[in-house]
UniProtKB/TrEMBL annotation:
NCBIfam families according to UniProt: PRK11815.1 (NF008774), yjbN (TIGR00742)
Stored InterPro entries: Aldolase_TIM, DUS-like_FMN-bd, DUS_fam, DusA, tRNA_hU_synthase_CS
Taxonomy of the source species: Bacteria, Pseudomonadati, Pseudomonadota, Gammaproteobacteria, Arenicellales
Chain positions recorded as FMN binding sites: 53, 122, 154, 194-196, 216-217
Cofactor: FMN
Keyword Ribonucleoprotein: no
Gene: dusA
Protein role: Catalyzes the synthesis of 5,6-dihydrouridine (D), a modified base found in the D-loop of most tRNAs, via the reduction of the C5-C6 double bond in target uridines. Specifically modifies U20 and U20a in tRNAs.
Transmembrane spans: none
The name this protein goes by in its record: tRNA-dihydrouridine(20/20a) synthase
Keyword hit for tRNA processing: yes
Annotated CDD domains: DUS_like_FMN
Enzyme Commission code: 1.3.1.91
Domain DUS-like FMN-binding residue range list: 1-294
Length: 312
């Protein structure tokens, strides 16, 4: 979810679900230790519970970043062992770490000793020619022995040779049954399933077997699906916000962010899918795409986009 789940998108998500755990886009240790730390780590208090997803493989650097994450107020730090991008491979982290479970375990052990917040692992079921059951079991066993209790498993292999990062989200077949088998083999661990999940009904079916569900692309392209989460998955009978309620609240947030120098198109891109499936929603999307990037554009673009949609 690089370039997707930034702090603005997470604020939008929280307007629709009070309970879902929100994850940052993957942030590398180098960005935190040597870059603009506030840019990568700042978040609104409304986002809790929120987890920082880290990309790296050096235990000392990862531990230092975990300590910073705890100081910054994050509720969890997550080690990314699933991203298949070329940049990640060249840095020896992300999905290529499936080949070195001992390295991941060393990170878990050292990080867990340094912080009080949970250290979790997000992974694939294997990479390239690995046998998924062997690769996944090896990683989970090693990391569980090191103290990890929560694993978020994208139920696809990652093919680092021959497929692009985009293709790796769709082309390798899903193997939910393998993740179910993982839960059966490690009942004491929290297993969260990820990959290709596009409905609340699918979430409910998975939750009959595993402990949690992670939804990524669908929640970004069709964000209003999150408005169903609290009632359907957390037994919260609070009134579900309407799309228009969400838009009004996000517009207020956008106005404040604009005053702090954030550009409108960095805010508006997250609500392009808010009216997904609604009549004339293409007019909403078109107005935003044609106007949000213009110099001097402000939150009134969202109002005018809404008017363009409802008036047809």
């Amino acid at each position: 979810m690089l370039d997707c789940t930034d702090r603005h998108e997470r604020y939008l998500a929280r307007l629709m679900s009070k309970h879902a755990v929100l994850y940052t886009e993957m942030v590398t240790t180098g960005a935190i230790l040597f870059g603009d730390r506030a840019r990568f780590l700042d978040f609104d208090a409304a986002e809790h519970p929120v987890a920082l997803q880290l990309g790296g493989s050096d235990p000392d650097a990862m531990t230092q970043c975990a300590e910073i994450a705890q100081q910054w107020g994050y509720d969890e730090v997550n080690i990314n062992v699933g991203c298949p991008s070329d940049r990640v491979q060249s840095g020896s982290f992300g999905a290529c770490l499936m080949q070195t479970p001992d390295v991941v375990a060393d990170n878990v052990r050292q990080m867990s000793a340094a912080v009080d917040i949970p250290v979790t692992v997000k992974c694939r079921i294997g990479i390239d020619d690995q046998e998924p059951r062997d690769a996944l079991w090896s990683l989970v066993e090693s990391c569980a022995d090191a103290g990890c209790e929560v694993f978020l498993v994208h139920a696809r292999k990652a093919w680092l040779k021959g497929l692009s990062p985009k293709q790796n989200r769709d082309v390798p077949p899903l193997d939910y049954e393998l993740v179910y088998a993982l839960k059966a083999a490690f009942p004491e661990l929290d297993i969260v399933i990820n990959g290709g999940i596009t409905s609340i009904e699918a979430c409910q079916q998975h939750l009959e077997i595993v402990d949690g569900v992670m939804m990524g692309r669908e929640a970004y392209s069709n964000p209003y699906i999150l408005a169903q989460v609290d009632q359907a998955l957390y037994n919260d009978d609070s009134a579900r916000p309407s799309r228009d309620d969400v838009l009004r609240q996000y517009q207020e947030y956008a106005e404040k962010q604009l005053q702090q120098g954030v550009r409108l198109n960095h805010l508006s891109r997250h609500v392009v899918g808010l009216y997904h499936g609604e009549p004339r929603s293409r007019l909403w999307r078109r107005y935003i795409s044609e106007h949000a990037h213009l110099p001097g554009s402000d939150a009134s673009v969202l109002v005018l986009a809404y008017q363009a949609m409802v008036q047809g």
